[in-house]
Amino acid sequence: MILDGNSLSLPGIFEELKSPTKLSLASESTRLVRKSRDVVDNMLAGGKTVYGVNTGFGKLANQRISSENLRQLQINLLRSHAAGTGGYFSHKTVRLILLLKINSLLRGYSGIRLEVIEALINLYNSNLTPAIRERGSVGASGDLAPLADLALPLIGEGQFLMDDGSVKPASEILEQLKLPIVELKEKEGLSLINGTQVSTALAIESLENIRDLFFTISGTGAFSTEVMLGTDAAFMKEIQEARNQTGQIYAGEILYALMAHSGYRDAHLDCDRVQDFYSLRCMPQVHGSWYDLIVYAERILTQEANSTTDNPVTLINENMIVSGGNFHAAPIGHTMDYLAIALSDVAAMSERRIAAFQETSQSNLPMFLMKEAGLNSGFMIAHVTAAALASENKSLSHPASVDSIPTSANQEDHVSMAPIAGHQLRQVIANASRIFAIELMCAAQARDLNPQYHLAPSSEAIYQRIRQEVPYLEVDGPLSAHIESIYEMISSGDMAKIVRHQLEAQS
After folding, report:
1. Among 81, 104, 123, 316, which residue is least crowded by beta carbons within 10 Å?
2. Count of domains forming the chain
3. For 108-128, how does the pLDDT look when each residue is reduced to its tens digit (9 = 90+)?
4. 3-class DSSP assignment, residue 61
5. Does residue 318 lie in a domain region?
6. Is residue 17 domain-shared with residue 137, that is, in the same domain?
């Protein structure tokens, strides 16, 4: 993959993470990086006071640093800011952080030498993963603590995360691979740890999962509608177009297509049930609003992946170094909060359909999806689990981005909280996926309780995939393993692939 600071795309990122390549630099980027460094050297030669170059950091910005200590200043910065805690980010997450950091530095606004960027590329191309603690960033001046963990191995300190989950001293691994240790110059430590790359990586990873979940829940909702003898009339194109919401039109189109050629649908055509309950009937509206936010997130994250989020920035044409606020991760924090809220709502609608499966008056099926209900409790507590997860999501959907907390002796008095939004969104995704798994388990059971009609091709494919690992329940048995089996089908993307394949086959 050739990086130029401007051309990363989300599909390109996703493909790179699945099938890693060697990174290389565009020639124009190397020119810009060198010119950017010239700006720093010019400022130093002119004896000017420049934040982070010859001053302290944060509240210590008024402390002028002597020329003989300028390089030690950058080393101290990495050491002092490596204050994260908790577990370590996965190999995949760290590689994405590293990719984003390299791309950002190549834009020619950071004043960092090409040698330092090449050292980062060496880490990436050598498949080395700096051990980065998950907790400790509020998105103030960027993701300082985790990015300090990322940068320390360049100077022979810090640790690498190994394939078996252990950590080893970076110095030991660098020596084994004969990779050089970098001697940082003025501003370079600051350029390495200032930025939104951790927050952005969390958002991009989540968006990849959310994309799959959109198709998974479309297939799930259509399946549930079929086996509860619901109608697809509410999914008709004409209804959605009357609303004139782009996402709703798309979501309705998918749901309608997924129910095509359904025997259950055909059986419904002559019945007197003209209106389904909301969690069936209103899926285009809710799913569609969520889809609009997904499209919005794709734009914001693509822009952020090709952005300069450093401070201060070097302006080549003006021969200036200027302090600003590009490190503030508000666009990322807001975006992740939006996605968490919308996904929680979609999952809450799924929980309502799970509840409907338990009651004959809504589902037209035996109570709790068991022929001998009473003796057997069936899926009663599976619904309780879904309710617990849906309720937890409501708490997790409180926007992290509105909960700023001052840091650095009140110098950083309004922070983005984007990393917190990222952690919350990850958990919302996991909870929602398990709710969808429970709904699919119920839908498959419902299919076996009322097998007189044939399913639509998408629902049939989903049903068969479930039944490969999860049996029909004639009598009570533990459900946890079954929920987790379907959860893995969802998390791996299997369910989304089934739905996408069916949609492509019908197009």
Report:
1. 316
2. 2
3. 999 999 999 999 999 999 999
4. coil
5. no
6. yes
Rounded average pLDDT over 150-156: 98
**Co-location of 176 and 264 in the same domain:** no
**118 shares its domain with 244:** no
Last residue of a domain, one of 131, 163, 195: 195
What is the per-residue pLDDT across 34-86, written as a single tens digit (0 to 9) for each? Answer: 999 999 999 888 888 888 888 877 767 678 888 888 899 899 999 999 999 99
- Which residues share a beta bridge with 161? 167
Domain boundary among 165, 195, 225: 195
Region of residue 261 (phi > 0: left; psi between -120 and 50: alpha; otherwise: beta): left
Residues 154 and 231 in one domain: no
CB contact at 8 A, 261 and 457: yes
Residue 408: inside a domain? no
Q: Give the CATH number, domain containing residue 284.
A: 1.20.200.10
Residues 67 and 50 in one domain: yes
* Residue 325 domain flag: no
Residue 486 and residue 441 in contact, taking contact as beta carbons nearer than 8 Å:
yes
Q: Give yes or no: residues 274 and 190 share one domain.
A: no
Q: Distance between CA atoms of 348 and 335, rounded to whole angstroms?
A: 20
What is the distance between the alpha carbons of residues 182 and 159, in angstroms, rounded to a whole number?
Answer: 15
pLDDT tens sequence across 163-218 = 999 999 999 999 999 999 999 999 999 999 999 999 999 999 999 999 999 999 99
Burial pattern 410-441, b for ≥16 Cβ within 10 A else e, equals eebeebbbbbbbbbbbbebbebbbbbbbbbbb
Is 169 within a domain?
yes
Element (H, E) at 73: helix 70-81
With the C-alpha atoms ordered 486, 492, 498, 503, is the resulting torsion angle positive or negative? Answer: positive
pLDDT at 130: 98
Give the domain range for residue 112: 2-195
Q: Are 106 and 33 in contact (CB under 8 A)?
A: yes
CB 247 within 8 A of CB 289: yes
Q: Select which of 51, 109, 124, 463 is catalytic.
A: 51
3-state DSSP helix/strand/coil percent for the chain, to nearest 5? 60, 5, 35
Q: Is 264 a catalytic residue?
A: no
Nearest residue to 345 (alpha-carbon basis) of 404, 422, 430, 286: 286
Q: Which residues touch 36 (CB under 8 Å, ≥6 apart)? A: 108, 109, 110, 111, 112, 314, 316
Residue 10 to residue 16: CA distance in whole angstroms: 10
